[in-house]
Amino acid sequence: MEQTVYLQLEDGTCLAGKPFGAPLSGDVTAEVVFTTAMTGYVETLTDPSYYGQMVVQTFPLIGNYGVNPTDFESEGIHMSAYITREWCAQPSNFRSQLDLDAFLKQQNVPGIYDVDTRFLTKRIREKGVMNGRLTLQKPSEADARSLSGWRAADTVSRVTCKETFEIPAGLPRFHVVLWDFGAKKNIARKLHALNCRLTVVPADTSCEKILALSPDGVMLSNGPGNPKDNLSIVKELEKLCQTGIPIFGICLGHQLLALANGADTEKLKYGHRGANQPVKDMDTGRTYITSQNHGYAVKNDTLPSHAVLSFLNLNDDTCEGIRYTSFPGFSVQFHPEACGGPQDTSFLFEEFSALMERRAKECR
Fold first, then answer.
1. Which helix or strand (DSSP H or E) is residue 124 part of?
2. CB–CB of 324/330 below 8 Å?
3. Active-site residue, 337 included
4. How far is CA 30 from its chain centroid?
């Protein structure tokens, strides 16, 4: 008889499912979030921004095109567990190298399927993001109450690179420092495609060390957790903003840059996770469909006088982008490098390139 796995939420909700992926040897506790993306599950699994979370896929069948390592956004899986309605045991795609179950086993990440993910998603939408626990023992109400105090700690330090390294370019046009808070590989790919030589630095790198590398620009990457847990990084960013070096921030990088300039952030009820988030360009009025993965947002009414709201989320009117007028910098909450997902806003990398070109001309 197949084993039963229980998913308990801190509000007392308990769902039963079946295990796949790595065997559940003990209880797993994490924040339970959902993503509405219909494709790109390999990129979701390997996105470091999901550290400390269990991810619910709202699309009912996951794994039908298998797993290909060339699609990875990092070296492996960072989420705590994976929750699906159904997983495909026989993927059909010429690029597939292994199935979803084998990949989770390889990465030692447990999964649970045969769960009513529609009910679970609606529960999170109604109640907000909650902590949850995967367990083999049917839990009690007391177990649910104990979940409320759990919190992922040191999230950025768990996913950043451990030491500085370079990604060379044949005929580099610019030298960009990629400040790694949990960077997705496609950020580096996009910059490399623009003939940028990259120096990737750990999250705890000081402003002085970054300046010593003589970059033409600094990219602030995505990453997991509450941006206010990274106040030491914010202090270094404050100093960097005074140097005149072009800065481009994505997701967590966007939030950290806002904090460094005096804005505030807040936790969203259930966040934005998926590949179908509409955002409005405040300059042109044009709407773009974007890929997103975040649980926090910059508060619109806290932007300083030298910051302009550049993109707005059309679902809930939250801040999706900021352009700064006191230094050559901008940031976005969504993922312009998204893969898999819409690439409507990849032009932002070219705008970053234009800022570096302008800066280079001014310094000649």
1. helix 117-127
2. yes
3. yes
4. 16
CATH number where 85 lies: 3.50.30.20
Whether residue 73 lies in the annotated active site:
no
> Residue 139, SS3?
coil
> pLDDT at residue 335 above 80?
yes
Structure confidence by residue, pLDDT tens digits, 150-190: 999 999 999 999 999 999 988 889 999 999 999 999 999 99
203 in helix, strand or coil? coil
Per-residue pLDDT at 338: 81
Q: In total, how many domains does the chain have? A: 2
Residues 167 and 47 in one domain: no
The answer to whether residues 308 and 284 belong to one domain is yes
Tell me the three state secondary structure of residue 302.
helix
Claim to verify: residue 213 and residue 257 sit in the same structural domain = yes
Q: Domain of 89?
A: 5-149
Question: What would the two tokens of residue 227 be?
Answer: 């941006």
Please tell me whether residues 36 and 55 are part of one structural domain: yes
Q: Which of 241, 251, 319, 339 is catalytic?
A: 251
End residue of a domain, out of 104, 124, 149: 149
Of all residues in the chain, the percent with pLDDT exceeding 70 is 99
Among residues 10, 31, 236, 337, the one annotated as catalytic is 337
Active site residue 251: yes
Out of 115, 149, 183, pick the residue that ends a domain. Answer: 149
pLDDT tens profile 38-73: 999 999 999 999 999 999 999 999 999 999 999 999
Q: What angle do CA 136, 49, 218 make, to 5 degrees?
A: 165
